[in-house]
Design goal:
By secondary structure, the chain is mainly alpha-helical. The protein is built from twelve helices and no strands. GO terms for molecular function: undecaprenyl-diphosphatase activity.
Length: 268
Amino acid sequence: MEQSTTLIAAFLGLLEGLTEFIPVSSTGHLLLAGHFLGFESAGRTFEVVIQLGAVLAILTVYSARLWAVFSAAPHDPQARRFIWSVLLAFLPAVVIGVLAHDFIKTVLFETPLLIAVMLVLGGVVLLVVDRIAPAPSHSDATRFPLSMAFKIGVIQCLAMVPGTSRSGATIVGALLLGASKRAAAEFSFFLSMPTMAGAFAYDIYKNRDVLDASAMGEIAVGFAMAFISAVFVVRWVLDYISRYGYALFGWWRILVGGVVILALWAGF
């Protein structure tokens, strides 16, 4: 693995960890950065696999809480209900992801202008919803009604379009359905675990014929950087959102998307 490629993989891993759990579209940032840096992985597997580093960060930060939930599940109906709520929210992504996988990876992932436009539109939506969301009626992410969790999962499928943001879609959906800002972000964290792990497993299966040993070094570097940076973001972001909401992320999306649109228009 060349030094320049190693540095790019490290930068993209850092970018993944910093953006995965905030509503700015980590995949959109990765694809756009890769476009301008001239980085392209076989089957776009690098961009999917390094997300597992961010999943590992969530598991690390929430390990005690997850252990308590699964330990209590055999005798605690509330713990079982929470597990079911996450699985129900995950289900729509399984169906849409399997049916549309090839179109997403070969068309949507290869359209930088679409990604930039979705960043801008998503930023506007985030700014509006941050202001007009109804007064919260659900402040505990582990106690969302099952019907609410399923609706959030359906809304999450909008993030199949890169630039939309998985966390952004789930957070906006949760806010509109009555979740507090903190609970919306936290449920997005929990839902990310099966969603991203499932995307990783299916993508590896679909691209098993185009993977090669040389890509493993890049993936390992990106994975490690994604894990380290995501740990810091997860520990910080809930307190920030509880105090200040989502406006910063909405403006960031609009700024990045606008700059990319201008760069593409200029021929870069």
